[in-house]
Specification:
Aspartate Aminotransferase, domain 2; binds pyridoxal-5'-phosphate; 428 residues; alpha/beta
């Protein structure tokens, strides 16, 4: 694998940008080595500036469920762009995407568009606090809800990848507003409600954890959260920034039949452009400014290009209903990886829901962040580089999800399993 141009750019970037990257997970810090710089994406493939070609399972960390540069998305982006890139006034594309979201996500009656998942969660938490007139928020260790002050405490994704455990820059008083509990541990949540019940504004959860690696909810966990929040008068917030329109058209809430009070969205709903959204019942959403007193705003919110590309993506998903196909590809990939590891005698746990999965280098089971953390990270790094050398790009961290897109075919899945078979053999 040639990396001349990438290494040149990386050296230059490191002089100009902290760590050479604009989001920490893009640096290859956890796996050693230096990141490659991308020249373009084509369907299921990424091509770097040195001409290396990779089957891509990062898919921009989740948004690209249709793959890179999907022709309909490219067409709509250029059409809208010719009309202007931002108006700072309402436009039809916002109404269109809002309509699609309200029709698609069972618990959402009204939705507000923002520019990132971080903003969506930050605003949803503010709204929950205003609605309940309470201050504490419960989250789960290894859950990632964007990088707002109160929520990066014991966070997953890049925070877990870099092993950051302190919280420089976050005042004690703010950190104390967040209670962090183990994922999938309903008893811990019950105890928290016994101790702090009347102070808990909301429980926020990734209904399928994606940022400690993929960890599905145990049967009854989400139902339990629903019951406990309802019983205490606090709100249940599903952070569906990854799972929305990914695990089913209606997200994890439709898949499991558990409806939250508020839902945070992002990633897929922007069709590859910066986006986020939060929504819920009219009764709660009417508190959001200008209808109500909970302030929230954005110069570029509801950006016409992002709205149009998001709406195009959702329409394709709605009309083609590809979730059965994604499930089949996901099953084949997970089974192939398990079998390849078994042949080589490497203990792994492959967690998967639909088209999102993670290979943990541990016997398992992996049901929470502590379990995920027992993974052999050195072995993961060797696996990562072995796969990359064989033309397969998986997330450069043990604590991230792989994503299969609709541009991945059986051919890419088989090539990936073949590559993994070789790499597992070398790991022995
Ligand atoms: C990616 C992600 C976010 C943050 O979204 P950004 O657009 O990166 O700010 C929040 N929650 C979850 C579950 C995510 O995966």
């Amino acid at each position: 694998m040639i990396q001349n141009r990438s290494q040149q750019l990386y050296a230059q970037a490191c002089n100009l940008i902290p760590g050479g990257v604009n989001s920490p997970v893009r640096a290859f810090q956890a796996v050693g080595g230096t990141p490659f710089f991308i020249a373009k994406g084509e369907g299921a493939y990424l091509i770097d500036v040195d001409g290396n070609r990779f089957i891509d399972y990062v898919c921009s960390w989740g948004p690209l469920i249709l793959g890179h540069a999907h022709p309909e998305v490219v067409e709509v982006a250029s059409q809208v762009l010719r009309l202007g890139s931002s108006f700072g006034a309402p436009s039809p594309w916002e109404v269109d995407l809002a309509q699609l979201i309200v029709e698609g996500v069972p618990s959402v009656e009204m939705v507000r568009m923002v520019n990132s998942g971080t903003e969506a969660v930050m605003s949803a938490v503010r709204l929950a606090r205003a609605y309940t007139n309470r201050d504490l928020v419960v989250k789960f260790a290894g859950g990632y809800h964007g990088h707002s002050d109160g929520l990066i405490v014991q966070g997953g994704s890049g925070i877990a990848t870099l092993g950051i455990t302190t919280r420089p820059g976050i005042p004690q008083a703010i950190a104390e507003m967040t209670l962090t509990l183990p994922y999938n541990d309903l008893e811990a949540v019950e105890r928290a409600f016994q101790l702090y019940g009347e102070r808990i504004a909301a429980v926020i959860v990734e209904p399928i954890a994606g940022n400690m690696g993929v960890v599905p909810p145990k049967p009854g966990f989400l139902e339990g959260l629903r019951r406990l929040t309802k019983g205490s008068g606090s709100l249940l917030i599903f952070d569906e920034v990854i799972t929305g329109f990914r695990v089913s058209y209606g997200g994890a809430q439709a898949l499991y039949g558990v409806l939250p009070d508020l839902t945070c969205l992002g990633k897929i709903i922007g069709g590859g452009f910066p986006v986020g959204a939060f929504g819920g019942p009219r009764e709660i959403m009417k508190l959001v400014a200008p209808l109500g007193p909970v302030y929230q705003a954005g110069t570029l919110s509801g950006n016409p290009v992002a709205m149009a590309c998001g709406a195009t993506t959702l329409r394709i998903l709605r009309t083609t209903d590809p979730y059965g196909r994604l499930e089949k590809l996901g099953v084949r990939l997970a089974e192939g990886l398990r079998e390849a590891a078994r042949e080589a005698g490497i203990p792994v746990t492959v967690n998967r829901v639909g088209s999102m999965l993670t290979v943990f280098f541990t016997e398992g089971p992996v049901e929470n962040f502590d379990d995920a953390n027992r993974s052999d990270k050195q072995q993961f790094s060797r696996f990562f580089w072995g796969m990359l050398e064989r033309g397969v790009y998986i997330p450069p961290s043990q604590f991230e999800a792989w994503f299969v897109s609709l541009s991945h075919s059986e051919k890419e899945i088989e090539r990936t399993v073949e590559a993994a078979r070789e790499v597992f053999r070398h790991l022995r």
